[in-house]
Design goal:
Strand content of chain A: 35-45%
Distance between the termini of chain A: 39 Å
Structural class of chain A: alpha+beta
Order of helices and strands of chain B: HEEHEEHEHEHHHEEHHHHHHHHHHHHH
Largest sheet of chain B: 2 strands, antiparallel
Helix content of chain B: 55-70%
Oligomer: heterodimer
Shape of chain A: elongated
Structural class of chain B: mainly alpha
Number of helices of chain B: 20
Number of strands of chain A: 24
Largest interface: A-B, 55 and 60 residues
Number of helices of chain A: 6
Number of strands of chain B: 8
Radius of gyration of chain A: 30 Å
Largest sheet of chain A: 6 strands, antiparallel
Strand content of chain B: under 5%
């Protein structure tokens, strides 16, 4: 076959129709996958699948071949050449965005600052420590468990001492339920199950310390309950500190109020005991107390996702199997060392901090429905700036968009969520769109002239 | 000349009805400003929406909604033995142990039933699991809402009539005290007097006197309410415009004129008569003018372009189809193009009018991301206007199929122009859809920083584009000939139905979820299926004829 004839067959309009129909079919399947599962599933298995790339490559070849086939171009070819070059540019732009772009989100609490964006990709990181205070990163790897799920036969392994960490199961949609297991390891912290109630409130929760020095907190709006070492003075808030004692049975409690910095009440308590902190007619009861405990998850697998499902992987170390959720950290102890194993979304340091000075929400009159919201941010080199819906901020090649916000149970905004991205392919896509649109318009212009010349009605 | 005069008369009459106080004596109450769903609306609109939630219709036994709703508050016990609550879902009726053949139920039948409490708990658990609600749970949710609306209305907590001296939240009837309470009591006393006078057939003079008194009480209350906080009180012009919109039903009138146009054109087309086109043009012109006027009213009332939910896009798309058919008709003078356009317009406007539960006609405020954005308007309008052209091609395809069924040899001269018109309509559609999708990308990039995100709504718009581009290229290869063009006009429109309706009502996922609703899947599915069957039938008949020939 000659070059010309190869080009001819690659340039065939019939091939074009088949390719166009294939793209349409594939993307239609993608929308159904997304409806049943979620966007991540559709992206992994359809929109970024081998099939899609293959069809797109044939599409591009077809578009190029048609233009080569028509060489040398005449004046009236301008429209079709432009339309096709436009499409090729858009495809190229998409490729550039996909390979070099960045698209993540950032949560910043009011009055806080953040410099890391969370990306959709996931990674496994392992830290180790010999003394329990200084940690070094011993392993880091990007993983896509949805696409390549680890199994008992083909597990994902990461180095550990004395045995490696073996990830042997993955479930994309599980409903987790926290459970607390007693474990005699002295490096572990304590766990407490408490109930706090009055006529209107009834909360039952676990508090689990990571280690005996750490403070774990349950915040239910007007008050906080802490498990861990208590400070000498309060900070002018309704707080209870519960501190495990060395006899592994007694707990000391300290109550602070919003009126004073001094301790308003203190005492000791054991499992089954209760006391009144003295605010809002509340009573706190200690339901369970483990002086040393660890957390695990009971998981219930679901076939399709709900807003409450999360990803879970199973990790095995020294014969112990444990489930961990996405953005969860697990601790493992050997005689010599402590290991922290993390399965989390990738993070990216944008190189400058974003401080959220203020955040405000406008509501539709007489309702709690938001009509608009905006963030007052402070960024070094920019100063104070307002970011609102449809009014993003561009800085150092990144664009920062107002995406959504978080509210406390009482309806007060607590944090702003930004969507932050970098898109080096943007201008190529815009150029392609422009070229293609001009091509389409010219197509009609030439048609008209051609038919006018031929002297027939269009 | 005749056309001009008619137009003049029409415009004048519209102006007069708009400017004047259209409400009859004793019905001033309907225009009382009420705060609900994030805006201020006339009591009439509010009452219709509430009655629709509870009863599924805008009137109850031919009585106006505002009367019904007000009596819920004035004497809730009188409603105990009325079949007021609409329940349609069979599974729900079974669960409540109610007669499945009935559709309307008394409050005590449902809400004093122990099972209702149990089912509500079930619903709460389902909500906490955050799973998608099945039709059964949706029906249960509606029932809960019906209960809520009725009881809250009965206690006076639902109806907010008085601006607070500070803050944006108005006070409900239950919160009124002192002077405002007294003034509102005047309204209710007068209202009761009027309806009992009507019920006991008192002399007209007496009734009219009482009605006038009622109107005066309403005016007094409004004046009082406005004095409390003039800045946050209703804009009188807007309330009047909305009352006018409620009473005039511009879209219903438009659909009537479109149907008349279609009938006239059908007659001309079948009989082959040459004169009479002027009448069709006049009728379509009037329909179009009223349609445009209705749009104008909606834009004025909502302060945004009318393309933010299913109902509005239906009304907008058929508007576009009509424009395209008028342009093509003016160029080609085939008659059936305008016929197809008026058929599309009639069908669209009737569907929009008869299915309020699915196509919600109420004026709703927008989600934050959709507010005050130029690109949003441009991209949605461009994409939906392309659907207009495809809708036209679809209807032309139907007409074409009809001629193929009648025999293509005898009707060659009719089929040729039909095919050409379908081709042109598809071209118009593609020219709008391609840039429309790109504009959507620009908007998404501008608002979210993502030019293309595989969102189902945008993806399906792309699938539609690819579908029609495949047809146009197929024409170049010779795969799509005349019959193919007719079939494509009909068949490819299924993709538009999926993109336009299916994504929101069948797929129900993605970023465009603010337009989402539920219902009607069986009807739309049947519509698509019927057309596919028709295509198969015509294809079989045609090929057997060709074999015999």
């Amino acid at each position: 076959m000659s070059f010309r004839s190869i080009i001819k067959s690659l340039a065939s309009i019939k091939l074009a129709v088949v390719v166009i129909a294939s793209i349409a079919t594939l993307t239609a399947i993608g929308t159904f996958v997304e409806a049943k599962y979620d966007a991540k599933m559709a992206e992994t298995f359809v929109y970024r699948s081998v099939w899609m790339f293959a069809v797109m490559i044939i599409f591009a070849i077809n578009l190029i071949a048609v233009m080569v086939d028509r060489w040398p171009w005449q004046k009236h070819h301008a429209s079709f050449v432009m339309a096709h070059i436009g499409i090729l540019l858009i495809l190229l732009g998409a490729l550039v965005t996909m390979s070099t772009g960045l698209d993540g989100s950032m949560r910043v609490g009011i009055g806080e600052e953040n410099r890391y964006i969370t990306l959709p990709g996931t990674q496994i990181i392992i830290y180790s420590s010999f003394d329990g205070s200084k940690f070094t990163k011993i392993f880091e790897s990007d993983v896509n468990f949805l696409k390549n799920p680890p199994t008992a036969e083909k597990p994902f392994t990461a180095p550990g001492e004395p045995t490696p960490f073996v990830f042997s199961d993955y479930k994309p949609y599980v409903l987790p339920q926290r459970k607390v297991i007693e474990d005699a390891n002295p490096l572990l912290g304590a766990a407490l199950r408490f109930q706090i109630r009055n006529d209107r409130v009834n909360v039952v929760e676990w508090l689990v310390q990571r280690n005996p020095q750490q403070v774990d907190t349950h915040d239910f709006g007007p008050a906080q309950i802490h498990l861990g070492p208590a400070p000498q003075v309060g900070r002018g808030a309704n707080e209870i500190y519960i501190t495990p004692q060395s006899d592994k049975k007694t707990l000391k409690y300290k109550v602070f109020t919003s009126k004073s910095l001094d301790v308003s009440k203190e005492g000791s308590i054991e499992e089954g005991g209760a006391f009144q902190p003295g605010w809002m007619g509340l009573e706190l009861k200690v339901l369970r107390f483990h002086p040393s405990a660890r957390e695990d998850w009971d998981i219930k697998e679901k076939e399709t996702p709900t807003p409450l499902t999360v990803e879970a992987i199973q990790v095995e170390f020294q014969g112990r199997k444990q489930w961990m959720l996405l953005n969860d950290t697990l601790k493992f102890f050997t005689d010599k060392a402590v290991f922290f194993v993390t399965y989390a979304n990738q993070r990216y340091d944008i190189g400058f901090p974003i401080r959220l000075k203020d955040f405000s929400v406008d509501r539709y009159q007489g309702t709690t429905r938001a009509s608009a919201y905006k963030s007052q941010v402070e960024i070094p080199g920019v100063g104070e700036h307002e970011i609102s819906m449809n009014e993003p901020l561009k800085h150092e090649g990144l664009t920062i968009y107002q995406s959504s916000f978080q509210e406390s149970p009482t309806g007060q905004p607590t944090a702003s969520i930004f969507s932050i991205n970098k898109d080096p392919g943007r201008w190529i896509k815009y150029l392609g769109s422009l070229v293609m649109s001009i091509g389409v318009i010219l197509l009609f212009y030439f048609k008209k002239r051609k038919s006018a010349k031929a002297g027939v009605r269009p | 000349m005749k056309k001009m005069t008619l137009f003049g008369v029409l415009c004048l009459s519209l102006l007069i009805s708009f400017g004047a106080q259209a409400l009859p004596v004793g019905e001033r109450l309907r225009a009382l400003p009420v705060q609900a769903d994030g805006r201020i609306k006339p009591f009439d609109t509010f009452a219709k929406e509430m009655l629709e939630i509870v009863y599924g219709k805008k009137t109850f036994e031919k009585r106006e909604a505002y009367e019904i709703i007000l009596t819920w508050m004035l004497s809730p016990q009188a409603w105990q033995n009325k079949e007021l609550f609409e329940v349609k879902n069979h599974d729900l009726l079974t669960a409540l142990k109610l007669d499945e053949k009935r559709r309307y139920f008394r409050g005590d039948e449902i809400f004093s039933n122990d099972r209702f409490t149990m089912l509500r708990q079930e619903l709460q658990e389902k909500r906490e699991s955050k799973e998608k609600l099945t039709p059964y749970y949706q029906a249960l949710q509606r029932l809960e809402n019906q209960f809520f609306v009725f009881t809250e209305m009965a206690t006076g907590r639902l109806m907010r009539v008085l601006p607070a001296s500070e803050g944006a939240n108005w006070l409900s009837v239950a919160q009124l005290e002192g002077e405002s309470q007294k003034k509102f009591m005047d309204i209710t006393t007068d209202f009761i007097a009027v309806i009992s006078a009507k019920a006991t057939a008192k002399p007209d003079s007496e009734t009219s006197e009482l009605s006038k008194h009622l109107d005066q009480s309403v005016i007094d209350f409004e004046a009082f309410a406005k004095a409390v906080n003039p800045a946050s009180y209703a804009n009188e012009d807007k309330i009047n415009a909305e009352m006018h919109y409620n009473l005039f039903h511009p879209f219903r009138w438009a659909s009537i004129f479109y149907i008349l146009t279609a009938v006239v054109l059908l007659f001309l087309w079948i009989t082959g008569r040459q004169n009479g086109m002027l009448l069709a043009w006049i009728l379509v012109g009037i329909g179009f003018a009223i349609h445009t006027y209705g749009f104008g009213l909606r834009v004025y009332l909502t302060e945004r372009p009318p393309v933010s939910n299913m109902y509005e896009t239906v009304v907008w798309v058929v508007f576009g189809s009509l424009i395209f058919s008028v342009i093509l008709e003016a160029i080609y003078k085939f008659k059936f193009i305008l016929l197809a356009g008026s058929i599309v317009a009639s069908i669209g406007m009737i569907v929009a009018d008869v299915a309020p539960a699915i196509l919600d006609p109420s004026l709703q405020p927008l989600e934050p991301v959709l507010r005050s954005n130029y690109w949003l308007v441009v991209h949605v309008m461009t994409i939906t206007i392309s659907y207009s052209a495809f809708f036209l091609a679809f209807t032309l395809g139907d007409i074409g199929l009809f001629y193929y069924l009648r025999g293509e040899e005898q009707h060659k001269e009719k089929i040729k122009p039909i095919v050409l018109s379908i081709y042109r309509a598809i071209q118009i559609g593609v020219v709008f859809l391609g840039p429309g999708i790109i504009l959507g990308g620009i908007w998404a990039d501008y608002s979210w920083g993502r030019f293309w995100g595989w969102d189902p709504k945008e993806t399906w718009a792309l699938i539609v584009l690819l579908g029609y581009i495949a047809v146009l290229h197929g024409r170049l290869t010779g795969w799509v000939r005349d019959f193919g063009m007719v079939v494509s006009g009909v068949l490819t429109f299924s993709l538009v139905i999926m993109a336009w309706y299916g994504v929101n009502f069948v797929l129900g996922a993605g970023l465009h979820s603010y337009g989402f609703g539920a219902g009607g899947v069986e009807y739309v599915g049947a519509f698509v299926l019927a057309h596919i069957l028709a295509i198969i039938y015509v294809t079989v008949i045609r090929s057997s004829r060709q074999k015999n020939a």
